[in-house]
Write a structure and sequence with these properties.
There is one protein chain. By secondary structure, the chain is an alpha+beta fold. The chain has three domains: 3-30 and 72-235, Phosphoenolpyruvate Carboxykinase, domain 1 (3-Layer(aba) Sandwich); 240-304 and 394-595, Phosphoenolpyruvate Carboxykinase, domain 3 (Alpha-Beta Complex); 308-386, Phosphoenolpyruvate Carboxykinase, domain 2, CATH 2.170.8.10. Strands 1, 4, 5, 6, 7, 8, 9 and 10 form an eight-stranded mixed sheet that branches. The chain has a six-stranded mixed sheet with strand order 14-12-13-25-29-26, with helices on both faces. The longest helix is centred in the middle third of the chain and has 17 residues, at 219-235. The N and C termini lie far apart (70 Å). It binds 3-[(carboxymethyl)sulfanyl]pyridine-2-carboxylic acid and manganese (II) ion (MN). Manganese (II) ion binds at residues 241, 263, 288. The active site is at residue 265. Monomer. Its EC number is 4.1.1.32. Its cofactor is Mn(2+).
């Protein structure tokens, strides 16, 4: 389709304005067809940036620039006129100043490149919960990834019509080409020139300088979390960093679970759970993001706004996540993995290593090499429909009704395997105080503890104190139809550093307990931190777990929790008067219970 043929005048004039600034050699409007995907991929193959994989049908391997391997939190901005509206956990710049700086960078940034216009829908096209975005990008790699991760093309323009609303998303890799020049390597700009900017008052996204993942596929973290969270607050719904799954018990009763864990804490694994308990079945709806609205019956309905998985490769194997492994057998893009000599990809934790390959930097690699073969944040981009346990209703436009919310993080100590909140406010307290030890997907030191409220620390599009308040207000609206809230920790270790819980498929045992609590089938034990399973209520049938280890896994260490309460107070102090009083009260109540 040509630019002139676009029916939406607002869209047309925005594209023209951006093209005047970025000066691409031409403009191409994406139709979303498989031929278009193949053409873009072929261009990347011809440049030597994409390597077709002999062993996986219609799949390709890429190596990014070593400076462009992950989301750049330090270069991510939430821009409101007043800094306080971005809050203490976001990087802020004044919108006029930020736009002035970025306009200078965008000027001519697409020279000798094509500007691709990608109309995309987050959520099933036409769903009342879905939103439309349009990404302008100079990266064919982004086009291919967006084809997988979102619903792209003419069908979206049809829904947009002549005066529909869309979120404008401008993206440039920030590497203009000289006349006759072609990309020889992954194009991007140096770190100090990268900007991932959000203007929530205008529902606007400007990204410059990175071609990688969340920095460049603007439907994902930028739109579906940062901009959507601000929209959701204004419009009375929720945009959350949550997987969605359906669990069916042996009697055929269905439960829908949405779970928030910080990046790289196993959301994809839990979303594709293979239960180890007899008669229970899990189906995947989404592995990263949930958009939820209150339905006519007063319950909370969730959709997965995405159409694909952008999963962490290292550690993914037929042992840890067979459903993910089956999802990536074909039609998949791999970034920063090892390329094996026989035309496949490999990463640490996948299987026995190949005798020889090329590492993520393109160097010869063998198991004896001193460095890892794949980057720790190497990724696969795969269509969600390829997941063997994708739920038949994963694209239901009205969503699925949520019964259970789970928060969690990676904690070697303090947090027991599972506890349940006493009520909604206590559950919001749990979410607002969620904390995790950091991994390679976060920028910063690995292994440090960071509070990550609702797993949204890098993704909230407004002041986190107001975000907490929005959760409280949603609870007020939902009343007795609100999902029950739980907190889990799959990662507790004993004094010798040994994992106390097997995790993976055995996490179904914990989910079973939650479902039985929802059904009111079983009672629970009150503890200072929340409700916990009574002896014998957590189904450990067939599991070899030492009694002492299990006791340690479930132990509430009062002294450690008193210390935790102090850390929470410190964490809360950042939010000043934006911290809801109701959460201060929760902290006081926790302390009172710990002192009894
Ligand atoms: O590093 C990136 O650009 C990807 S980050 C990511 C990708 C998929 C799902 N979640 C995340 C995340 O950081 O939460
Ligand atoms: Mn994520």
């Amino acid at each position: 389709m040509k630019l002139e043929d676009l029916k939406n005048e607002k869209l047309k004039s925005w594209i023209k304005e951006m093209a005047d600034m970025c000066q691409p050699k031409d403009i191409y409007v994406c139709d979303g067809s498989s031929e278009e995907y193949d053409r873009c991929m072929q261009e990347l193959i011809d440049l030597g940036l994409s390597h077709p994989l002999k062993k996986r049908k219609h799949s390709h391997s890429f190596r990014s620039d070593p400076s462009d391997v992950a989301r750049v939190e330090d270069r991510t901005f939430i821009s409101y006129p007043n800094e306080i509206d971005a809050g203490p956990t976001n990087h802020w710049m004044n919108p006029d100043e930020l736009k002035k700086t970025m306009k200078e960078l965008y000027k001519g940034s697409m020279k000798n490149r094509t500007m691709y216009v990608i109309p995309f829908s987050m959520g099933p096209v036409g769903s009342p919960i879905a939103k439309i975005g349009v990404e302008l990008t100079d990266s064919a790699y982004v086009v291919c990834n967006m084809h997988i991760m979102t619903r792209v093309g003419t069908k979206v323009l049809d829904v947009l019509g002549s005066n529909g609303e869309f979120v404008p998303c401008l993206h440039s890799v920030g590497a203009p080409l000289a006349d006759g020049e072609k990309d020889k390597k992954w194009p991007c700009a140096p770190i100090e020139k990268k900007y991932i900017s959000h203007f929530p008052d205008e529902n606007l996204i400007w990204s410059y300088g990175s071609g990688y993942g969340g920095n460049a596929l603007l439907g994902k973290k930028c739109l579906a979390l940062r901009i959507a969270s601000a929209m959701a607050r204004r419009e009375g719904w929720m945009a959350e960093h949550m997987l969605i799954l359906r669990l069916t018990n042996p009697e055929g009763k269905r439960f829908h679970i949405a779970a928030a864990f910080p990046s790289a804490c196993g959301k994809t694994n839990l979303a594709m759970l293979q239960p180890t308990i007899k008669g229970w079945k899990c189906e995947t709806i989404g592995d990263d993001i949930a958009w939820m609205k209150i339905g006519e019956d007063g319950r909370l309905y969730a959709i997965n706004p995405e159409a694909g998985f952008f999963g962490v490769a290292p550690g993914t194997s037929y042992d840890s996540n067979p459903m993910a492994m089956d999802s990536i057998r074909e039609n998949t893009i791999f970034t920063n993995c090892v390329e094996t000599d026989d035309g496949d990809v490999w990463w640490e934790g996948m299987s026995e290593p190949p005798a020889h390959g090329k590492d993520w930097k393109g160097n010869d690699w063998t198991p004896a090499s001193p460095d890892k073969g794949a980057h720790p944040n190497a990724r696969f981009t795969a269509p969600a429909k390829q997941c063997p346990i994708i739920c038949a209703d994963w694209e239901d436009p009205k969503g699925v009704p949520i019964d259970i919310f789970i928060f969690g993080g990676r904690r070697a100590s303090v947090m027991p395997l599972v506890h349940e909140s006493y009520n909604w406010d206590h559950g919001v307290f749990m979410g607002s105080t969620a904390a995790s030890e950091t991994t390679a997907a976060n920028i910063g030191s690995v292994g440090a503890l960071r509070f990550d409220p609702f797993a949204m620390l890098p993704f909230a599009g407004y002041n986190m104190g107001d975000y907490m308040n929005h959760w409280l207000e949603m609870g007020d609206k939902l009343g007795d139809k609100a999902p029950k809230i739980f907190y889990v920790n799959w990662f507790r270790k004993n004094a010798d550093g040994k994992w106390l819980w097997p995790g993976f498929g055995d996490n179904s045992r914990v989910l079973k307990w939650m479902c039985e609590r929802v059904e009111g089938k079983i009672d629970a034990k009150d503890t200072p931190i929340g409700r916990m399973p009574k002896d014998g209520d957590l189904d450990l049938t067939g599991l070899k777990i030492d009694e002492a280890d299990f006791k340690e896994l479930m132990r509430v260490d009062i002294e450690a929790w008193k210390n935790q309460a102090n850390e929470i107070e410190n964490h809360y102090s950042k939010f000043g008067d934006r911290l809801p009083q109701r959460l201060k009260k929760q902290l006081e109540e926790l302390r009172a219970r710990l002192s009894k």
